[in-house]
Write a structure and sequence with these properties.
It catalyses: ATP + protein L-histidine = ADP + protein N-phospho-L-histidine. This protein is α+β, with helices and mostly antiparallel strands. The strands form 3 sheets. It has a 5-stranded antiparallel sheet with strand order 2-1-5-4-3. A hairpin with a 3-residue loop joins β11 and β12. α2 runs antiparallel to α3. The chain is elongated. The relative contact order is 0.05.
Length: 702
């Protein structure tokens, strides 16, 4: 092996000479505006000193180890000074924690050298120190390469041209160091051939490194790659964990016998369990992400990646994917790492109601979740409500007195983001608190506001598409009904003619009597159907008058009670204004739906009373209930039914009938608990009062 030793001396000697010449050249010819210029000179001098020591002593001599440590520390300092070339302290602040970590790991080499000198004759100690030293060198090399990658990737295109020679040289140096010590760690020794080649590697990298100082590097900025940084932090955590396990395992070697074996097996089992439980956890990943953003980046968000993720989430489609409403919540929650959220949308009557729930099934949402005053603030000011600030009494737009108590009392509620479309409030998304606690800042508010407007446009576009689709279905339905009405009219005419002929020609009095009754009833039913269809076409505004709502409710209850348990628990006599037959049909639709939804013959309860302005009827069942999504998107949509044999127009028809008479239909439902329908019509007295007031106003205007 004499030739390998001679080659080693020769390569290290040449490396020392070239490094010294490169340091002298940079000191004389290097660009004056490079803040890292003298750091590069010092690094090359320490490298030349290390090469001289390696050419003069055995590779494992303590002097060689000491000079190598100083050389590595100098190269880390060069890497740190390169980040200061943009002229600002911000870049140095971002990388300082990582550089400190690398310096700390490298400084541990001094401790290993001390241990090695204290136990020169212990083969086990020498092997352990050698293995640990190689592992430390690997960690430092990986960290330096990651920093170098972020430096080069984050530099502007013009700055990369200035940086490329220095970056290439340092990348070669750390890459060779990484491979050298990785092989040494795996093999358990330092191959003499690779030891000799290290001097040649130093000679090769010194030349391009010196050439890199011929041009100015002003304007160099630092924009680290977030994905690589997160991976690097994960590797650091795993590496520290492995080092800890290695140290414990090596320390246990001092024990002997079955106690040592039992302890080592228990350590392996415990380490494996901890690895499976802790390392893959979402909380650990969230902590790493928050730590990296807080200490390594000027901005919280990588806006390009956030927008790509947002577009991908919204663009998901298919029968197995979430609805647009749920994807809207998810896309906003992903930005802040919120685990769940709610979507509240403004309905046709201008009230806010729950529309969708994403991973928050335990949240109970009241019937009126957002007061109209707070909705007005959302719409006019675009305020993003931070519930932690509201709980602390901090106010921005006078929102505190209107903040919903059900959200303030639930500490999981974190923020409310308004969805604005053309300065009109479409809805509000409630975000849950992230697993890693943090405060909302200006970047959160800006990004959430922009994404909220984008989501509002998507939701408004979907609503427009649904309206167009509904209009198309109605057009088809009207065309079909035109044919049906024509056929019914012909049938009515034929039966009326049959009735007149029977009156003239029937000879059997009994037969004639039965035929007359049957035909007359059929004709009456058909004419009634025609009249009702004609009324729908005209809007159902004519022939309104006073009728006893309680009497009609009582009669409907008695009719359905023959076949099902239908109970009238409260009834107050009252006169309302409307159309008695239309109200009866609407009430029959709702009662029949309640009976169909009841499970195992559960009772349906009705009550009618007056609230002073309107006559109110409530139909309550304890059936299957309906989800918030179906309440908003399916219940009152024509041709949408939860039953396979349903036509999907009964609930819609009932609501339109009540509305055409100036009334209202409200629904509350909980899955597996039941549903409450509330029908209200104006009292006759209130109707007369409004009518007289309107007439007086018209006279004054005239």
């Amino acid at each position: 092996m004499d030739w390998a030793v001679s080659l080693s001396y020769l390569c290290y000697g040449i490396g020392a000479i070239v490094s010294g010449i490169a340091a002298f050249w940079i000191a004389r010819k290097g660009a004056d505006d490079r803040s890292d210029r003298w750091a590069g000179v010092v690094a090359l001098i320490f490298t030349a000193n290390w090469c001289i020591a390696a050419a003069s002593f055995e590779f494992e001599h303590p002097v060689v180890g000491l000079t190598e440590i100083f050389a590595n520390l100098a190269w880390i300092f060069v890497l740190f000074r390169i980040f200061a070339n943009d002229g600002r302290d911000e870049s140095l602040r971002l990388v300082r924690p990582v550089v400190v970590a690398l310096v700390f790991v490298e400084m541990l080499q001094f401790a290993l050298l001390g241990i090695e000198q204290r136990h020169p004759f212990s083969a086990d100690v020498q092997s352990l120190v050698s293995q640990t030293s190689a592992l430390f060198h690997v960690l430092v090399a990986v960290g330096a390469l990651v920093l170098l990658h972020n430096l080069y990737v984050g530099a502007a295109p013009a700055s990369r041209k200035i940086l490329r020679w220095n970056a290439a040289a340092m990348a070669g140096f750390w890459a060779f160091t990484l491979n050298f010590y990785t092989i040494a760690y795996l093999v358990g020794s330092f191959p003499i051939e690779l030891v000799a080649l290290r001097g040649l590697a130093v000679m090769i990298i010194a030349v391009p490194f010196a050439l890199g100082y011929t041009k100015s590097a002003a304007g160099l900025t630092f924009r680290p790659s977030r994905a690589v940084t997160f991976h690097f932090l994960s590797l650091l955590v795993i590496g520290a964990y492995l080092l800890l396990m290695l140290g414990l395992g090596s320390w246990l070697d001092v024990l002997s016998g079955s106690v040592a074996r039992m302890t080592q097996v228990g350590l392996v089992i415990a380490a494996g369990a901890l690895t499976l439980i802790w390392l893959p956890s979402a909380r650990l990943r969230g902590w790493l992400r928050v730590t990296a953003v807080k200490h390594l980046f000027k901005h919280r968000f990588d806006y390009r990646n956030e927008w790509i993720r947002f577009t991908h989430t919204i663009g998901l489609g298919g029968p197995d994917e979430d609805s647009l409403q749920e994807r809207a919540i998810r896309s906003l929650a992903d930005i802040t790492d919120s685990p769940s959220g709610l979507l509240l949308l403004v309905n046709e009557e201008g009230q806010v109601e729950q529309c969708a729930n994403w991973r928050w099934p335990q949240m109970e949402v009241p019937a009126n979740p957002i007061p109209s005053a707070l909705a007005t603030i959302f719409e006019n000011e675009g305020l993003i409500l931070d519930f932690d600030e509201a709980r602390a009494g901090i106010e921005h737009q006078g929102e505190l007195e209107h903040a919903p108590s059900w959200l303030l009392e639930n500490l999981q509620a974190w923020a409310a983001v308004p969805l604005l479309h053309f300065d009109r409030l479409i809805g509000v998304i409630i975000l849950a608190r992230p697993e890693i606690e943090r405060k909302l800042d200006w970047e959160d508010f800006d990004l959430l506001a922009i994404v909220g407007r984008q989501l509002a446009s998507y939701l408004a576009e979907q609503a427009s598409q649904e309206a167009l689709s509904e209009a198309a279905r109605f057009d088809e339905f009207n065309r079909r009904m035109a044919f049906v009405m024509h056929d019914i009219k012909n049938l009515s005419s034929q039966m009326s003619l049959l009735l007149r002929n029977a009156e003239k020609h029937a000879e059997n009095p009994e037969f004639r009597k039965d035929m007359l009754i049957t035909v007359r009833n059929s004709a009456d039913k058909l004419n009634t159907m025609l009249s009702r269809l004609g009324r729908y076409a005209k809007g159902g505004q004519e022939d309104t008058g006073a009728f006893d709502m309680s009497a009609m409710v009582r009669a409907t209850c008695e009719r359905y009670a023959r076949n099902h348990q239908v109970l009238l628990v409260r009834s107050e006599p009252m006169l309302v204004n409307g159309q008695a037959d239309a109200f009866e049909q609407a009430l029959s639709h709702i009662v029949q739906n309640a009976i169909d939804a009841s499970v195992d013959g559960g009772a349906v309860m009705l009550e009618s009373y007056s609230d002073g302005i309107s006559g109110v009827v409530q139909i309550i069942d304890s059936g299957r209930g309906m989800t918030p999504t179906f309440l908003r998107n399916g219940l009152f949509k024509p041709f949408v039914s939860s039953r396979e044999d349903g036509f999907g127009i009964g609930a819609y028809e009932a609501r339109e009938m009540i509305r055409s008479m100036g009334g209202r239909v409200e629904v509350e439902s909980r899955v597996d608990l039941g549903t409450r329908f509330t029908l209200s019509l104006p009292l006759q007295s209130a109707h007369e009062l409004l009518k007289s007031s309107y007439s007086a106003e018209r006279k004054e205007i005239a």
